[in-house]
Amino acid sequence: MTRCLPDSDFLNLIRPFTGPIARMRPTERGFSSDALALIDSGFGRFFVKGVRNRPGGRRDSLVRERLINDAVRSVSPRLRWHTENGRWMALGFEQLQAQPSRFEPGSPDLPAVVDLLVRIQEIPVPALAEEWHETRWDAFAADTAEARLFQGDTLIHGDVAPGNFLVGADGAWAVDWSWPTRGAAFVDPSILALQLIAAGHTPAAAEDLVSACPSWAKADPRHIDAFARANLRMFRHRADNYPDQTWLQAMADTAQDWIDHRSPHPG
Description:
The chain is an alpha+beta fold and 267 residues long. It is 39% helix and 19% strand. The radius of gyration is 19 Å and the shape is globular. The model has no long low-confidence stretch (mean pLDDT 93).
């Protein structure tokens, strides 16, 4: 395969759902997938993603993305079909006329991004996700009591990033629901705040933008502080383990800037 483009075995698997393929091109996102493409075909236009069909995180995330789709169709592209064989598992979504959003200061996409996040948080947690408790930051909390602050009853996307929040002439959509969970309502707005700072906003400006999310405005600031510290520990840990991935250290620095803004006089 060439940079996530499907191989012939994968194409044979999906052809009953696509029909003859007229055009196939790569995308700029979704690097956690083993196969990824925008496909124009006899049966329509699809965004197709696939993973190797073997036990583990990638397969589990694709299963979860398939299961959650019915619940998030108001904010996400519709899953048109899914299929698998002994080697591959694949999902075929409707193809959107939209582009990755821009998070930098002055971006015209920011109101749509914040509005989309608010709409996501208004979706009731579906029954199938009741036991999908948010645990991704638990290992980086100060203790179990702090980790419990990240629990809650809100549907969490968990990866609020420019490539996953698409904006087009007809609206905005959240994609890549690879690991939705049930957690504290301030989690996704906090992730957005961190991403906005990384994109060049001051911490104060980032917090001003996410304050349009009711869940952020109502949250206990101490809980957000704990989440910010957990993110700092997480990115420092990952930067230490993957020093060649320089973006991890950049995110650790971003988290530190945010903490310094929120707690300018520690102790």
